[in-house]
Design brief:
The structure is a homodimer of 450-residue chains. The first copy, chain A, has helices at 9-18, 21-29, 33-42, 45-55, 59-68, 74-91, 95-103, 107-116, 119-129, 136-139, 153-162, 187-192, 199-202, 216-226, 245-264, 276-303, 305-310, 313-341, 350-380, 383-413, 422-444, 446-449, and strands at 146-147, 171-175, 181-186, 210-211, 230-235, 238-244. The first copy, chain A, contains 22 helices and six strands. Helix content of chain A is 68%, strand content 6%. Chain A is elongated, with a radius of gyration of 30 Å.
């Protein structure tokens, strides 16, 4: 089951059980974070506990290993480790990583681990847990490097030297006695300046900061667009902590997953390795929604059973009208949703985007409508059938462009995720309208079709 | 057209034309990168030129502004600026950003701008251009901070002090005289160590590095999973440059866009703000593919025209069979594609993932098949019709799970992008098999259906 080419797992197990600590550490050092996570998942509890205890001495490696464990599999690892070892691992992680671990436990387990973690750490973590999920406060590291504006560069460098291993050293923040954030400078600038210079002389006074209640997506956007390594989190100007770029990368990846999942009709926590019953429960509500939209399309077709009975070849072309409509609608939907996420709509506007998509949709419609019309004419020898299907396709691709643009923009205006159920809703519209126009036109012109 | 709340654009234009430089810089300082990019796109050439000339003195802001201009709109900005101002801007950017700008110009323009940029810069950029697109070499900054293993910490700190503004200061690399990379240390560790210590004593000798020809996706994966701020690029152990985390965020965002685009049948360079004719040309090949797959589905239905003529209600339920199959197939496809991109398949295996998806697919099939069967029975009063449609849905969702998993895994094994055309291919399979099983079963049991 366990695939790792870099070390021999039975040998590692032997070393963990009886070998000298240096050997174990050297063997662990050869494994990447994913492999270490797999090892923790697969080995029996005593060995998993021993490995985490070794990793507690190597903060970066422990952090990477814990991060590499998918959320959905964490309960398994937690069970292997037991609460005492978990509490010890929390103390060896940055506070934001520790909070993320805690949130994967159930309420009671959380409280017990927090108690085992000791008073100081427990208090600190309980404070962070109070911020809303997906807020800047939840992601921040409450440890940071700060000096007073009256400090000299030499004093600031001494502060850097004394900082613990858990303090991010990307920037040095300049903070008044009352906690107000008044400036920022980088370690690079500090090293380059003369020792006697006042920090206030080299600091950047216009600090880009985010509020503690700001959404994680906004935080990620600020860090990536402003090219920062960390962004300070403030409450009414008071510095509370920093969100660092490694967290931002995680947020950006989660947001991309969310967009793709929402479009396809999937929920968080339904992953490749989730147990089947979990995936089933997460998917069923979406499948039920899709069932209802499909039956809506069936009802529309049902209205025209009499028409189809007169000319069965109409049934043959139904999948073409629906297939082309669904695909072009989803193309538009994807362009708009990705455009919203990447902030590209700044370079266009909702209305301009709508007009453009409608122009493209009608153009694609004219081309595909002509081709399908000709195919129908040549295949079935019925020119009028070709005309009806061609017109239905043009009309349907106009609708596809319209709904593919309007649905995400409307969801966004309503404060919802623009991708929510996108594909299901767009396909519903193109199915319903496609059948309505195709079979409706056929009914109107039945006289010429026969 | 230009929406910015933070400054008055007519006032900015007036300042650019006649105001003092300090006023212009203060006004520009109030704008975010997206707003500055919009300003460059919208203002007449002389004013755009003047603004870029001002920005050349503010490297970070110039970099952010250039990055904020979407690739597809860059030609417009380049035309505003003219080659001389462009060449000057190149000199004020990091080499990797300069290369990215050059690649947005056509061949001839590229050569002219490189000539205008001067011998040193021209040579350096021409060297980077030789690396393959999407390779580590193309993304690297050829400037880095390096010292010999015999240097002391004090000497290393002096090297940091003398480094130019264009040298990334995340890590200090330790390099032998022949260019071999032998170690790495951080600025933080340097500041914390005593001046007389040898750099070789505090350096980390196991350097995580990437080859110059490595794919950008691999580079991004290494930086994000190993929690680095920069990764050294080497050729046979010799240090050539560094890829920094800001580039990695860009790569991760482009890869997410690529996955979503490939799934929906979209090509790069088809964005919200692309002109309609460009989007049309990019989408048509995909639409043509979709046209062919839709006609395949139509051919299958065409085989059963006789059956449908006997029982028109079959046509009514065709959209339900196709709709449910397409949606569940795309759910599976999305889970697998995202799983591949995020490396989650390490926690499962291809076969295990396939078995799981098939189990989920059959379970969803049994539930939805039963519901649709009952709906058909109640609506049309035909129990046998309910049975046939129920069985067809179960069989189709088995196929949906199979192809939703197998298509991306096969594409990956073939060395192609696992998302390529995914949605179109999966929908083709579920349409074709769905109609085949539904209408085929109906033909077999027609005797009982009537």
């Amino acid at each position: 089951m366990l695939r790792t080419s870099r070390i021999d797992v039975p040998l590692l197990r032997k070393a963990v059980r009886a070998g000298p600590p240096t050997l174990v550490r050297r063997m662990l050092g050869k494994l990447g974070p994913t492999e270490l996570a797999l090892v923790l998942l697969e080995l029996p509890p005593p060995e998993a506990k021993a490995i985490v205890t070794h990793l507690c001495a190597d903060r970066p490696r422990l952090t990477l290993t814990i991060r590499a464990i998918p959320d959905e599999l964490f309960a398994g690892v937690a069970a292997q480790l037991g609460e005492a070892v978990l509490a010890r691992a929390l103390g060896a992680l940055d506070a934001d990583d520790a909070v993320r671990v805690l949130l994967l436990l159930d309420e009671q387990e959380q409280q017990r681990v927090l108690t085992l973690a000791g008073d100081d750490l427990g208090l600190q973590l309980r404070r962070l847990l109070r911020y809303a999920p997906e807020s800047a406060g939840r992601h921040m590291n409450p440890r940071f490097l700060a000096v007073s504006p009256q400090a000299t560069v030499g004093e600031a460098i001494r502060a850097v030297r004394q900082a613990g291993a858990d303090v991010p050293l990307f920037y040095l923040y300049v903070v008044e006695d009352d906690g107000q954030l008044v400036g920022v400078t980088s370690l690079g600038k500090l090293v380059k300046a003369a020792d006697a210079t006042l920090v206030s002389k080299i600091m950047e006074p216009d600090v880009i900061a985010v509020a503690a209640h700001a959404d994680q997506e906004e935080v990620a956007r600020v860090v990536s667009q402003r090219n920062l390594l960390a962004v300070p989190v403030v409450d009414e100007g008071r510095l509370l902590g920093v969100v660092t770029i490694d967290d931002v990368i995680g947020v950006l990846e989660r947001e991309a997953t969310e967009d793709m999942y929402n479009m396809a009709g999937l929920s968080e926590g339904d992953r490749v390795f989730s147990p089947p019953h979990r995936s089933l429960l997460k998917r069923l509500p979406w499948n039920m929604l899709n069932l209802v939209t499909s039956i809506l399309a069936a009802i529309v077709v049902g209205l025209f059973e009499h028409t189809i009975a007169q000319l069965v070849v109409l049934a043959t072309f139904m999948p073409v009208v629906a297939g082309i409509g669904g695909n072009t609608g989803n193309q538009t939907l994807t362009v708009i949703i990705r455009g919203i996420t990447l902030g590209e709509l700044e370079f266009s506007s909702g209305l301009r985007a709508l007009l453009k998509e409608v122009m493209v949709g009608i153009s694609v419609g004219i081309i595909l409508g002509t081709v399908v019309g000709l195919v129908a004419f040549v295949w079935k020898g019925n020119a009028m059938l070709g005309l009806v299907i061609g017109c239905a396709i043009i009309a349907n691709l106009f609708v596809a462009a319209l709904v593919g643009t309007a649905i995400p923009l409307t969801l966004k205006r309503l404060g919802l995720d623009p991708a929510l159920g996108g594909s299901i809703l767009v396909t519903m519209c193109t199915d319903v309208f496609g059948f309505l126009s195709f079979l409706g036109l056929a009914t109107l012109f039945m006289h010429y079709l026969l």
